[in-house]
Amino acid sequence: MSDEQQGGITTVLKEDRSFPPPQEFQTRASVKSMEEYEQLWQKSIDDSETFWTEQAETLLDWDQRWETLLEWNAPFAKWFVGGKLNACHNCVDRHLLTWRKNKAAIVWEGEPGDSRVLTFSDLHREVCKFSNALKSIGVTKGQRVTIYMPMIPELAIAVLACARIGAPHSVVFGGFSSEALADRNNDAEASVMITADGGWRRGKIIPLKDNVDECLTKSPTVKNVIVYKRTGQEISMESGRDHWWHELVEEQSADCPAEPMDSEDPLFLLYTSGSTGKPKGILHTTAGYLLGATLTTRYIFDLKEEDTYWCTADVGWITGHSYIVYGPLSNGATTVMYEGAPNWPDAGRFWDVIEKYRVNILYTAPTAIRAFIKSGDQWPKKHDLTSLRLLGTVGEPINPEAWMWYHEVIGGGRCPIVDTWWQTETGSIMISPLPGATPTVPGCATRPFFGIQPQIVDKEGKEVTQGRGGFLVMAKPWPSMLRNIWGDEERFKQTYWSQVAGKYFTGDGARRDEKGYFWILGRVDDVINVSGHRLSTMEVESALVSHDDVAEAAVVGRPHEVKGEAITCFVTLEEGKQPSPELKTELSKHVVDQIGALARPEEIRFTDSLPKTRSGKIMRRLLRDVAAGRESQGDTSTLEDFTVLAQLRDGDE
Ligand code: PRX
């Protein structure tokens, strides 16, 4: 970790407002006081064997009990060794034996206003038929399947069907470009892709199948494509390769036994950005992941049988995996899925969905909250939001003003807010209030969940004193931790386990206050968080330099009112190329083509050269200051050429 990375850790405002759990909420909560939380947490750490054993016995259905709880050959963990279970069975079949059989499992709303409800029996039938459809085109246990779909029930059905037959899924967010899809698919070497003709977003069609066609020119492993008809526009279907979902499913039986999987069999890969190189396929396995998702959903959202629960993420991200599909369904909860944009046809859409389905628990991202604040209180005020009893946020630090607005305007002052910190790699929530126990503080993720032992350390791995910023690490393995990076064990060791010996390195900075509350300070590596989406500055830089006119590029995040961070690019051009507004537009489009609209630069600045250290390293810290309009703090003595900085400040183009 360089000094420059250390410099990325800033201290947050002193925040002393505190909100104890409302009494009415507390009375019904599963954990009702801080004393109870502390006792349970301490036990879960001191005797983690008993804790995880009891949870796994209580919360999951097993085909065969495990023999060893944990084999920990750092950094490789195996949990519930020798056990067998099926994640889809746990999310679907087991509820059919109870009164939940006809309970709503998925309540779905499409962007154009269409809606569907699938009960657990409906879900079972559709998942079984689709599992058989996958088998009919030759998908077998262990084969990866790429899923690139809009937010429709069939996305959850596809995920669960893969889990049912033991084929690890790799869901790629529908907002990624064909290039990004090809990269991910080539890495996973999937032979089947599941998609739709399109999906709705802000009244327009996202041409998913066209993107797949383009992707497949670069991704030869795919032999079969299944296409769900959602938007109905003209698309091309290649005979022998492309199959309509409805045609393939029509002939299938609704009987498909769930494959008993080993605890450590891969459940899915999910690609995420790291600080260097190409996206990494984070590998999650069956038992540990499912236990983490099930347990955290139950306690952190204080789930009750009658709740209607809505997580507004996309299943293309880990939040959607754990808290739209696996966590809620495994608990037998009713999970809401919404297809489109939060502000379509107007800024009242979310509040309309809440009123329409009487949503009780809402889990969303700070960037969405900030966008709603901008559109004005008149939108939520038009709707009856009294069904809400609990609110959650995830994905980035929430600024105290946004927290207060969420609390007052959306929660009517009566709903606890759980600010949940976790990562694709952690599989499930790690640091969060328990809503019936923890007094919340705006902007603070508070305390670790059961069985989780975070620490804040310095560069040498020594715990820092209370109040000081440092690197957030995990001292103990936990069941839903990532097991590897797909096909790149070295990178797995290097990224997560070599910074602080024997401990998991999160890439985030944090500080702990006198109450033992954890304050997340943001990334300490070259990952930026744009609207809650994780992007590597290197990825955007590679996209820029792959354009013929670009010689060098440096990308940094700068603070942004709604997005949290916005992408700022500093670009030097090849000899003879001239900066122009047209070239800016072209470069911006080029980045979108390479990665997807989520990576669209906020700002591109042309410059003659980039500030570097004598050893040739780009000084990102300086660029971040320039991008944010700040005077540079700290050491600039190694800057190769002082005039570069002056030029950048002048906005020299
Ligand atoms: O920097 C942290 C930030 O999001 C990163 C993880 O991103 P991703 O793997 O895409 O997962 C996002 C959803 C789990 C973290 O390293 N982050 C996530 N939640 C919070 C957060 N930062 C502050 N507060 C949070 N509640």
Describe this structure in words.
The modification N6-acetyllysine is found at residue 617. Keywords: Acetylation, ATP-binding, Ligase, Magnesium, Metal-binding, Nucleotide-binding. The structure is a single chain. Helices cover 33% and strands 23% of the residues. With 653 residues, the protein is an alpha/beta fold. Among the domains are: 117-341, ANL, N-terminal domain (Rossmann fold), CATH 3.40.50; 531-651, ANL, C-terminal domain (GMP Synthetase, Chain A, domain 3), CATH 3.30.300.30. The strands form eight sheets. It has an eight-stranded mixed beta sheet with strand order 12-11-8-6-7-14-15-23, with helices on both faces. The chain has a seven-stranded mixed beta sheet with strand order 5-4-17-16-18-19-20, sandwiched between helices. Strand 19 (390-394), helix 16 (400-410) and strand 20 (417-420) form a beta-alpha-beta unit. Helix 5 crosses helix 6 and helix 6 (120-136) crosses helix 7. The relative contact order is 0.11. Residues 1-11 have low confidence and may be disordered.
User: Helix fraction?
Assistant: 25-40%
Which structural class is indicated by helix and strand composition? alpha/beta
* CATH fold naming of one domain: Rossmann fold
Per CATH, which architecture of one domain?
3-Layer(aba) Sandwich
- Work out the helix count: 21
Question: Per DSSP, what share of the residues sits in E-state strands of 2 or more residues?
Answer: 15-25%
CATH superfamily of one domain: ANL, N-terminal domain
Strand order of the largest sheet: 12-11-8-6-7-14-15-23
Cofactor: Mg(2+)
InterPro entries: Ac_CoA_lig (IPR011904), ACAS_N (IPR032387), AMP-bd_C (IPR025110), AMP-bd_C_sf (IPR045851), AMP-binding_CS (IPR020845), AMP-dep_synth/lig_dom (IPR000873), ANL_N_sf (IPR042099)
Organism: Kolteria novifilia
Family: Belongs to the ATP-dependent AMP-binding enzyme family.
